[in-house]
Amino acid sequence: MTNQWIEEVAGACRTAGIDYLDVIIDQAGLDRSVIPALTVLALEWQSLYQGLPEEFIVDAAPLITRVNLDDEQQMQWLQALSQQVPLLGICSSWGFSALSAWLAQCTDILQEGRGGIFRFYDTRIFPLLFTHVLSEEQQQCLLRPALFWAWQDKDGLPRGMEGVGMPALRGEISRKIELSDRQLEYLCCVSDVIIMLAHHAPPAGAYTSRQALFYDCYQGMVEATNNGIILDDAREEWVMNQLLGVARSS
Length: 250
Hints:
Layout: H1 2-15, E1 20-26, H2 35-40, E2 44-47, E3 62-68, H3 72-82, E4 87-91, H4 96-107, E5 108-111, E6 114-117, H5 126-133, H6 136-143, E7 148-152, E8 158-162, E9 178-179, H7 181-199, H8 210-226, H9 232-249
Parallel strand pairs: 5-9
Antiparallel strand pairs: 1-3, 1-4, 2-3, 4-7, 5-6, 7-8
């Protein structure tokens, strides 16, 4: 399924007149850095921590790299890597330096005046940014350079999102995203779901799709937040009751 996904994304890039694919690699999910492989394959790459206080963290930083779709070795490496870690792809007409600098700026956010790292490149989080977390204006930070974004969901199925794809302007910088307390709470709901699913099984026979289970749990956590339910046990109980309701109605 993963190799097929990469081939489909490569085909969509070629249809758009682009002969490369930019890929964000979250090295935090790997046992070792991919930088030596990038060097051997002569791939352009950049840390998304570039210019941030965390830029000294290179071996565990999220990296963006540009893969030549006509280079067999690079494509084989990409397919092998996709078996090890979820990848977020972006098809963009922007030059690599402009795109990597823009996305590094998107990584640098504010929350209540304090700086922080925005892990938008986590494929569990990425689609939720456009349904639950970011305002339409904030979404433009990620949509502006993209013809489209591509990833695989928790079932390994291909997912995509169309971008704006406007040409880069010389000297243009991304507006810094500032998250409200509520937006941060919605982001934290993702980790709440991951923790909950580590020790709670869904109702028997209710879910065959890991992605559907994850989404329903996330929606339940958001509702718990909106209802002022703060304690972890109470939040998990709320979500499990929601899942039981789904099981009864199915």
